[in-house]
Amino acid sequence: MFQFTIPGMTCGGCARRVTNAILSVDPTAHVVTDPPSRSAKVTSTAEEETLLAALGEAGYPAEQKDQPAAA
């Protein structure tokens, strides 16, 4: 699973465009967006770089959120 911070995702319409960008590269991906926190959780078999590129091309540059350390 990937967790992305997407600063430009501010509303439901943005969230739909973010989801569609991810699904354009992996139609089987599971995407959970949260506009108030400007974040998305993505379960996908695509490479992280591919997902980030798709988001950037859609106008939503993103970065990988820091993952908490495993206990």
Automatic annotation (TrEMBL):
SUPFAM superfamilies: HMA, heavy metal-associated domain. CDD domains: HMA. Residues 1-63 form the HMA domain. Gene3D superfamilies: 3.30.70.100. Pfam families: HMA. InterPro entries: HMA_dom, HMA_dom_sf. One of its GO terms (molecular function) is metal ion binding. It comes from the Bacteria. This is Copper chaperone.
